[in-house]
Amino acid sequence: MKVLIFLALILVSCNVTIYGQDKEKSPLKLTIKLDAKKVCIGDSLKFAVRLKNVSKGPIVVDTDMIGVRTSLVWSLNTPTGGSGGALSTRGHRGRYVEPEFLVLKPGKSYTKRSQYSFDKKDMVASPDYTLAITYGQTAESVFEGLEVWRGFVDSNRASLSVELCQQS
Questions:
Q1: Contact 53, 104 (CB under 8 A)
Q2: Do the Cβ atoms of 77 and 126 come closer than 8 Å?
Q3: Across all residues in the chain, what is the average pLDDT?
């Protein structure tokens, strides 16, 4: 059953990578840089998410929508086979929250610092984990005379390991 849920989550996340645009033609690139490759269960992992304009013109983005979806996927190989799972969060600001629009000029980027906490009840020690972040914007808007870019862009997949560590 867990394997079916895991596969369903992968299919859903792959299916909505880009809204209305080809990934190769996306004017935005989203990357993650982890502060560490290993983390202890119960600790937090700090990381930077960078949204870059890779087009030839200015693009308006809503910086609050970086991290609209966060996925943490793991796999564990055992002598009897493999198992895995996923944690996925989706953000929703509500309709009356003011957006944080920013005009990104060609080649410019915006970096947002964030963290992910590894709660004991949600984690399995020693598997390989993969963290992915999504920037998403679907609302039609205009900012400083420019149309706000609409779509979804997934980040690179950042690999890390989660371990049981001795608490001192």
A1: yes
A2: no
A3: 76
Tracing tokens 């003011």 back to the chain, one arrives at 98
> Which pair of tokens denotes residue 68?
């609209």
pTM given for the model: 0.73
Question: What pLDDT is recorded for position 146?
Answer: 94
Cβ neighbours of 150 (radius 10 Å)? 14
CB 135 within 8 A of CB 150: no
Q: What is the 3-state secondary structure (H, E, C) of 6-52?
A: HHHHHHHHHHCCCCCCCHHHCCEEEEEEECCCEEECCCEEEEEEEEE
Average pLDDT over residues 67-86: 68
